[in-house]
UniProtKB/TrEMBL annotation:
UniProt KW keywords: Receptor, Signal
Signal peptide: 1-25
Entries under InterPro entries matching the protein: BUG (IPR005064), Bug_dom1 (IPR042100)
Name of the featured protein: Tripartite-type tricarboxylate transporter, receptor component TctC
Superkingdom of this protein's organism: Bacteria
Family: Belongs to the UPF0065 (bug) family.
Length: 327
């Protein structure tokens, strides 16, 4: 190869390398610019449960305030995508563009439980977790017209009449489903599980006397217990409520709560996560949101992205031992 040809090839290779480096630099700069100017268009929040469920109610309450808290005051819409106990919505969000315009709101079950059953296309740590906003204990409730006035009476009836009592849950493989299995084992209950597509349908079934009892979150039970439409018999969490004993007080090794949080697709830019988290914190401090939550019994319990990520990891590992029968 002569010197002219060698020089020519060297010049071409140098130009090509500079072009590649320039393109990479522009791509990074474009990504940083997009994150710094976020948001510039409406944001959609997916909810994996039907309208009227706790997840839906909390999301819509916060979404109304989020519009005012976000830069540029963009519109925030809520879309219900029920199915699979919340798995359908999580699957859609995990696989969406991580630009912050499609996010979700969910309880912990679709991440910490369903991922152990082999029926999800995502792992528990695939979503980017943004902010936790509330925690709600699970409660066993019955219709006020039922014969049971206490958990002891309910338990005795399930033993005297094996298989005759039905308990509604938000769906197969949900946390209440697992609570019921634990209660069967620890208390010797013999009951039938009736899965529904979410909390609201299960509660409606109990109010219509289509099932004998339900295990749902406190926010699904307590407002109706206070109005006399339902009767709460046992709390599976740690909160103290008047006239509602906890499972631990009754001698059972049970402590279960639902954690509700915002999340996004895998690999969301940190700047976008911080922007959303900051706006969510302002939203849950909004007096209108606080008042709305108080009216329906929601207790705000904020955790940052880092904190909720660690909580979900720990619960995933704990439930894995329980579900796989190794604890």
């Amino acid at each position: 190869m002569n010197k002219k040809m060698g020089s020519y090839i060297f010049t071409l290779l140098t130009a090509a390398l500079l072009a590649v480096l320039s393109a990479c630099g522009n791509s990074t700069g474009s990504s940083e610019t997009e994150a710094s100017s976020y948001p510039e268009k409406p944001i959609k929040i997916s909810v994996g449960f039907p309208a009227g469920a706790v997840t839906d109610t909390v999301t819509r309450t916060i979404a109304e305030s989020l519009t005012k808290q976000l830069p540029n005051e963009v519109d925030v819409a809520v879309e219900n995508k029920p199915g699979g106990g919340g798995v359908v919505a999580v699957t859609d969000i995990v696989n969406s563009n991580p630009n912050g315009y499609e996010i979700g709101f969910t309880p912990n079950g679709p991440l910490t439980m369903h991922t152990h059953y082999g029926n999800t296309a995502y792992d528990y740590d695939d979503p980017t977790l943004i902010s936790q906003v509330i925690v709600s204990d699970f409660i066993l409730a019955v219709h006020p017209d039922s014969e049971w006035k206490s958990f002891e009476e309910f338990l005795e009836s399930t033993k005297d009449n094996p298989g005759s009592v039905s308990i509604g849950t938000p769906g197969d493989g949900s946390r209440p489903d697992l609570i019921m299995d634990q209660l069967k084992e620890q208390a010797g209950m013999d009951v039938n599980s009736v899965p529904f597509e979410g909390n609201a349908p299960a509660r409606t079934a109990l109010m219509g006397k289509d099932v004998d009892a339900v295990i749902l979150t406190e926010t699904d039970i307590l407002p109706y217990a206070e109005s006399g439409e339902l009767k709460a018999l046992l709390n599976f969490g740690e909160k103290e409520f008047d006239d509602i004993p906890t499972a631990q007080e009754k001698g059972y090794d049970l402590n279960a709560s639902a954690i509700f949080f915002f999340y996004g697709p895998n690999d969301m830019p940190k700047e976008i996560v911080q922007a959303l988290d900051g706006a969510i914190q302002k939203a849950i401090d909004d007096p209108a949101v606080v008042e709305s939550f108080e009216q329906v019994g929601f207790d705000i319990n904020y955790k940052s992205s880092e904190e909720i990520t660690e909580i979900i990891k720990m619960e995933y590992e704990q439930l894995g031992k329980l579900i796989n029968g190794s604890s």
